[in-house]
Amino acid sequence: MSRDHQEVNFPFSQFYREKTARFIFVNAQTVYKMPLLCGGTTEAKDANEEVQKICDEIKSHAEDKAGRKFDVFTAKTFKTQLVAGTNYFIKAHVGGDEYIHLRVYKTLPHAGEKLELHSIQTSKAHHDPIEYF
């Protein structure tokens, strides 16, 4: 059990009354209580396959917003923000010493997990931190 998770046992009806945390059911007796992160962004993490797939899907939209084509479009790091869906703040390498920051919104599963490029920041460098924008 990591320090970010706490095992709790309680009646099922209490699950609906609890408003300050998210829960994951493991089995009928065990529930893990996780800290609620709604609103804030996570710490920056190295990009993974899922984040690269997001970049691959929105590349043409990013090129349209930037007004240019990118020969390279590689996700490097990212943060997420839990909203009514998920905002991804992604640092992508676009060639040479140039990076861009992307804000991509992913809808909830019941809405089809669609992606929308919300905004971009161009002329970024490798050392520029990903910030909320």
TrEMBL record:
<dbReference type="GO" id="GO:0002376">
    <property type="term" value="P:immune system process"/>
</dbReference>
<protein>
    <recommendedName>
        <fullName>Cystatin-B</fullName>
    </recommendedName>
</protein>
<feature type="domain" description="Cystatin">
    <location>
        <begin position="36"/>
        <end position="133"/>
    </location>
</feature>
<keyword id="KW-0646">Protease inhibitor</keyword>
<dbReference type="InterPro" id="IPR001713">
    <property type="entry name" value="Prot_inh_stefin"/>
</dbReference>
<dbReference type="InterPro" id="IPR000010">
    <property type="entry name" value="Cystatin_dom"/>
</dbReference>
<dbReference type="GO" id="GO:0004869">
    <property type="term" value="F:cysteine-type endopeptidase inhibitor activity"/>
</dbReference>
<dbReference type="GO" id="GO:0071220">
    <property type="term" value="P:cellular response to bacterial lipoprotein"/>
</dbReference>
<dbReference type="GO" id="GO:0005829">
    <property type="term" value="C:cytosol"/>
</dbReference>
<comment type="similarity">
    <text>Belongs to the cystatin family.</text>
</comment>
<keyword id="KW-0789">Thiol protease inhibitor</keyword>
<dbReference type="Pfam" id="PF00031">
    <property type="entry name" value="Cystatin"/>
</dbReference>
<keyword id="KW-0391">Immunity</keyword>
<dbReference type="InterPro" id="IPR046350">
    <property type="entry name" value="Cystatin_sf"/>
</dbReference>
<keyword id="KW-0963">Cytoplasm</keyword>
<dbReference type="InterPro" id="IPR018073">
    <property type="entry name" value="Prot_inh_cystat_CS"/>
</dbReference>
